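ok so I'm stuck.
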Amino acid sequence: MQKRPSFVLWLKATWLDIFTMLVLGAIAIGVYSIRPVGTRMFPLTVIDDRTGEDTGEVVYPELAYPYRSQIISSGLDTALAILVPLFFLLIIQIRIRNFWDLNNTVIGYIYSIETSAAFQVMIKWLIGGLRPNFYDICKPDPSLASDPTFNVTGWNGVGYRQYMYTSDICTSGQTRALWNAMQSFPSGHSTTIWAAYVYLYLYLNAKLKVFANYHPSMWKLILLYCPILGAVLVCGSLNIDQSHNWYDIVAGAIISTVFAFSSYRMVYASIWDWRVNHIPLNRASAFRRSEGYEASDLVFTNRAGWRATQPAEEKEALPTTVLENDGNMASVANAQSDGTMNNYPAEYSVTNGYSLGQAQCSLLRSRYRGEDMV
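replied:
not stuck anymore, here's the structure
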């Protein structure tokens, strides 16, 4: 088992990650704070679908997208996205009690949130898109298109029916709120929410052993999918509040899910392999399955012997015959009778018919607990 590292050793091993996080965070904040690239255009009049004629009706917020008050405030969104999953990741350590696991958990969590956030900020800045509440924030005045002072781009009143305009005619002014209204794709809140909650989902799956080699209790399945339910509810509120289009939310969820899976795999031995997906990786040495599994007890559940520490002799490789007999003592007895028992180590010798050596009995019992698979 790994010894708890001193702060100096920990800092020496993680300083490059810390530096990268600070730089990436600074870049993301800087990009988020400046005006989006390019000119975003939007329609201002309504075309009659039946006649194809311009009705001459100016689209105001009431006729476009009714802007409703937010169900969840922006500050609460941030708390739900970052603090709540982090709280559960930390509180599980009351049972795990391992600095190595805590270090990898928190660092992987930061990987997931920060990289996905930087990714979506760049897409917002370069591509973006109009929010459903854009007209409410812009408050456009088409008459400004004839004023050279406001029509800076010269692209107002253009297009097939001359009803495409730019933000030059927005009476709200070129403010941060207007820029934000032109950067709807992908949803930043959805990206952060899914990056945090999918990572928590993967962590719970590894620690609870929901999809393992035994039948777990139903409460574990319910608890496992609580983060996914929370992410769906928060993202659904963004659509109800008219803060984002549905495709903005879906794009943010896809981006963050990819980063959550990638981040978890960077710090743990596997994503879905229930035998090792709870084992944190070490920076100094590679994880080798053939050498026996370290930290086999770093799980939340007691079922199937998951928290039982393996003695060193139980990690030794067994002959194929013993591993495949599933506890059938007759196969070992047959090996003794036909003279092939010499292929087994001495401690696996059979005496008095079906009696086994202590080490082998322990290994066979471990198969029923699932312990030899950790």
